[in-house]
Specification:
single chain; 190 residues; globular; 8 strands; Rossmann fold; 42% helix; 21% strand; 4-stranded mixed sheet; alpha/beta
């Protein structure tokens, strides 16, 4: 079976991390741990949620892709992807759309792109506050060009990504379950 990585993309606050956690818990799909220079949020664990880096330690990694988002660096290392693939042929990661483009370019069909959005994008600010981001952090994030870019699926990825609408968590879980169950059924047949 070909090794694949589910790449969950979308604007901040659409539920990418929640989907990733759900997939891990329900289906046992390991997460590719990515790196960031942003400050750790309450409840996050280094090496589980992210590898939390300093600007200098970040520069020492071997990245498949990396970006600067709202003043912080984020990246997915080749070593992290291979560590996840040692655990399972199907793994999951959370990236921005720029990272999704890079994964598709570098990995081809091994990158299974999922773009997450919500119908009322005005609710994203509320979601960012609910997850514990302060007013200044939220304002910085929503005014960033990266946030604005991720509000829409890039043209280059149209027709290459699953589009999931996260207006209702229970409905979204059904969409996710369907995608994973179809994948697993097809994998058993091949």
């Amino acid at each position: 079976m070909q090794k694949r990585v589910i790449v969950i993309m979308g604007a901040a606050g659409v539920g990418k991390t929640s989907i990733c956690s759900y997939i891990g818990k329900k289906f046992g799909i390991p997460q590719v741990i990515t790196h960031t220079t942003r400050a750790m949020r309450e409840g996050e664990v280094d090496g589980k949620d992210y590898y939390f880096e300093t600007p200098s330690s970040f520069k020492e990694k071997h990245f498949l892709e990396s970006v600067t988002y709202a003043g912080n660096s984020y990246g997915s290392s080749i070593e992290g992807l291979n560590r996840a693939w040692e655990q399972s042929d199907l793994v999951v990661t959370v990236l921005d759309t720029k990272g999704g483009i890079t994964y598709k370019e570098e990995l081809g069909d091994q990158a299974w792109l999922w773009y997450v959005t919500i119908s009322d994008q005005g609710k994203l600010v509320e979601r960012l506050h609910q997850r514990g981001d302060g007013d200044e952090a939220v304002e910085k994030r929503i005014s960033s060009p990266e946030f604005k870019r991720d509000l829409a699926l890039p043209a280059v990825l149209k027709g290459k990504a699953e589009v999931l609408v996260n207006d209702d968590w229970e409905s979204l879980k059904l969409q996710v379950d369907g995608l994973i169950n179809d994948y697993e059924s097809n994998a058993r047949l091949s």
